[in-house]
What does this fold into?
Amino acid sequence: MTTPADVGIPSGREDRGGRLGPTRHRPLEVLFHGVLLASLVIGVVFLATLLIYVIARGWARLDSRLWENFNSIRRPERAGAQAAIFGTIWVMALTALICLPVGILAAIHMEEYADKTKWWNRAIELNLQNLAAVPSIVYGILGLGILARQFGLGTSIITAAITLSLLVLPVVVVASREAIRAVPNTIRDGSLALGATKWQTIWKQILPASIPGIATGSILALSRAIGEAAPLLLLGAVTFVAFNPDSLTSAYTVLPIQIYDWIRQSREEFQVLAAAAIVILLAILLAMNSLAIYIRNRYQKRW
Amino acid sequence: MTVTAQKASTASGAPRGSLRRSRPRYGERAIQAILLLAALVSIGTTVGIVYSLIPPTVEFFQRISFSEFFTGTNWAPLFEPPTYGVLPLLAGTLVITAIAVAVAIPLGLLAAIYLSEYAQPGVRKVLKPMLEILAGIPTVVYGFFALAFVTPLLRGVWPGDGPAIFNGLAAGIVMGVMIIPTVASLSEDAMSAVPQSLRDGAYALGSTRMLVSLRVVVPAALSGIVAAFVLGISRAIGETMIVTIAAGISPTIGWNPLQAMSTMTAFIAQAGSGDIPVQSFDYKTVFAVAALLFAITFVMNALSIRLVRKYREVYE
It folds into this structure.
């Protein structure tokens, strides 16, 4: 047992002078507060160092060559990431098209229809929680073994998009469920009382009211997909690509994979190039996150 | 009112006064089926993962015995002659995870205590998004930072023989920072679920804020905090890009984090990123290691989910 004195509690009442506030300095309390704050500051300092380092390192190559040129192994001074930028846009658009409808519909099922006493609905819920923590490289295995090989989609853009969709699906579902749950029951009851069917209520009342929350969560999910590299390593994205994708089945590369490829090159120019591409990637992510925060603050209703 | 209601029910042929559905609404039912189908996609994903892992893994173990796989101390499946002892990969994963956890658990927990018990709303509003940004940075960026910044920094300040160019230490430290947000936000959730009455009671007995945090809130939220730890460990085990970029390759068991070390994920990424033919044994090897990784993280996630449920049951 620790005695009160050990932890800085005043042991006697004589020095309190009738007031209720603390009268003594408690060094341990102050120290503890300091340690707590320091632990957070370490994270913030790390983040700041990372950002400053990447920008400083990549500054020299942060120009139009980066998005106007294609990759070049022999001439790093002319190498660019256009194929990767276009590849990222393609993969993201497809991922959004696949994972948003599926995720939102699944969320509607789980929030509005699912009978929690049925074992399959509990299984869906448990399964989703588990999927959220499955390592991303395992999704690459799924994409390789099932989509690319069994379904014969090969290592193409559509395989990558489906794989990433499945990867971020739990994020979309969780965010959408929270948004749907936040709509108060009075709105449901009001709509049903006026004779609307359940689906009419959902489509005309619940969904419009929950769109800001869903949009915010969806953007965050997509920004996770944009930065994801590990599963795509297994799905053929690492090959040298010097053209923009033009169809669902074309070969592709994306920004994180292009960055990984440059990091592995031994020449210094490629390290600078990698840092410059990282700045672009982070800028895209920052833009998406700002948009998400803007939507949340601008449109979200407080019921 | 009554008249219209009666009219409506007679018109649809339902018994007078009944509040039950008067018509079978096929459209509604079709929509319900579509929604269920969308929800089942997640089940399909899990089934797909297991289905893609099992056949190649079974074929792998038809040729390589369990004892060779789990007790062999040399992992060099892509060399001649190939050896298939998975222990070096497990050791590498263990060492790097231990370093990451040593960074993430104290920092994450303390940050959570600060955010939940100490921070003024204004401070909280600034600091919490900062942590969330840490969680949103792509892992390939962390990998680059570990290799290009942290390793040279460590080599510079290390007395004597410092870390190698590729080493487990830098990868582990950076990975630790990466999972701070996971640990912090889940722990904070658990702490905010602790009823205010418990805190008030402790304050009324004369406790200081530190005592309330450490003796009341943390113990009361313990199952949630442990769940956060377990999930953080699971994320460290499954993290791929940082180790692939910064930790290097080592075919033998190495406990020294200053040297290069392989993890399960790094092996899958390196061996799987080439275009390996389906019939080849290398392909099966990749899937066998992935099956082991999936099994380990699955057990940890299940444990974490159980623990979270426990604290929810108590307080919510």
About this structure: Chain A is about 70% helix and 0% strand.
